[in-house]
Amino acid sequence: MTWLDQLPDCVDDLRRAGEFQQGGRSAEALPIYDKVLEVTTDPLTRAYALVQRFGSLINLGRVAEFATAMTLASNAVHETSDPYLRGQMHAFAALGAHLQSALDRGVTHLVQASRALAAVPDGDSHTAWGWHDLAMAYSYLGFHGHALTAIEQARQVGAAAGMAQELFAAPGIRLRNAVALDHQGDTDGCLRVLRDIDAELTRYVASGVDTRLRPSSRPVYGYALARRAALGENTETDIGDLFTSGGDSVRSRELRHLGGVCLDIAADRPADALRKLDAVPVSQEILGPAEPARLRSICHAAAGDHEAAHKADRYAFRLAAQRIDRLRDGYLDGVAARLDAQETQRDAGRYGDETLTDPLTGLPNRRQLERYVAAMLARGERAAIGVCDLIGFSAVNARHGRHCGDLVLQRIAGVLNRVMRRGDFVARFAGDEFVVVLPGAGPTQAAEVSRRISAAAAGENWQVLVPGTPIGLAAGWSEVGANTRSLGAALAAAAAHRTPA
């Protein structure tokens, strides 16, 4: 018995759509999920179909539809409290966040997915695939060690359910590890991993189990071997044959394209390889933003243009280093969040059962803001204080309804949290009004934070969330603690000087 067998309707349709999806045919799975959603009235069936539909959109790279699909799936899953569905949804959400270049959101979903899947009491084939998708998400976001742990969990759960181990070969995990090593200057380490991938495929072919590999795994093996050939090592396997399958996912398409670049390099056709790189742009999410630059460096080196090769190599290294910096910042933010949580727990004990958090956004509310500023003033400290209002919020509620308005407020809360400096304080004051407090800051720091808020808000894809309704922020700044100015006076002064952020 599998997880699907507990559903009261549409089981055959959902099973067929799942087979399409696992076979790399997400475009064929998508209309089946839409059909199920039109006819089912069962909450569990609806939640499952919405989660898997979200996964199909991720496979197809339809980024513009992620936000809406994620919201629908998340709301449906939270109504069921099923740990498998929660884990699968968060695994897909982590992949979606990666494709949207939202590393902080992706890491949060990784943790939530791992905890939910670990809570599944009796794993089956669906749970195994949930662990597999979580392993892929770990790998794409750069957590290669965690990815290997998750894929081993997938193998164990899958074996208990009678599934072939080859289904969980997951060569993409090691491939991304290999190219990451090369991007950081460890080409020897990269080649060692690529040789291991080649040897594994050779074993599968020799034992006749290669036919049980997932279709999406074949172009990954193909790229690993082509990448090895581009670095000057030959392989006995017919690489071109591996690129003939793989389904309709954006990942498979881009691996075929970049694989062709590698094969041109191996065949001493660097000019052809460079033309392919110039002709078809690839996303930064499949093998990391540094991979096209690194291939360009190898092309120039093969053509004898060592100055251009060095320039491209330095650019690739800089892109790889930026990713490491983002991970390091995420670690520091995590420590800061843990310290803030500990402080909040101490405050909760001090203030009893009074509510200090806005339930919609999770931010501190007006009461907590007032107590925070009062404690700061009692210590003789000063701060810059900003009042931020949403531009276009009334139009959102009028055109799209209160639910979309709530989603906009949650998104703005996330924007403000991301751009604040460590130690800054953000609260939802009332309605669409937010207040930020920058301890020890003056006009210069406030102007810089205001610029970051403006850039972050402008960078959000509001068109997907509330089509046709522009969203912006107006911000005004003042000081609290200066000249014994109170919180109320500072807020009034800031509100009087609001301008578009």
From TrEMBL:
PROSITE patterns, A to Z:
GGDEF (PS50887)
The UniProt entry, under SUPFAM superfamilies, shows: Nucleotide cyclase
Please name the Gene3D superfamilies in this protein's record: 3.30.70.270, Tetratricopeptide repeat domain
Q: Where are the transmembrane segments?
A: none
Q: Which SMART domains match?
A: GGDEF (SM00267)
What domain of life does the native source organism fall in?
A: Bacteria
One GO location term (cellular component): plasma membrane
Q: Name one Pfam family in it.
A: GGDEF
Name of the protein in question? Diguanylate cyclase (GGDEF)-like protein
Q: Which organism is it from?
A: Pseudosporangium ferrugineum
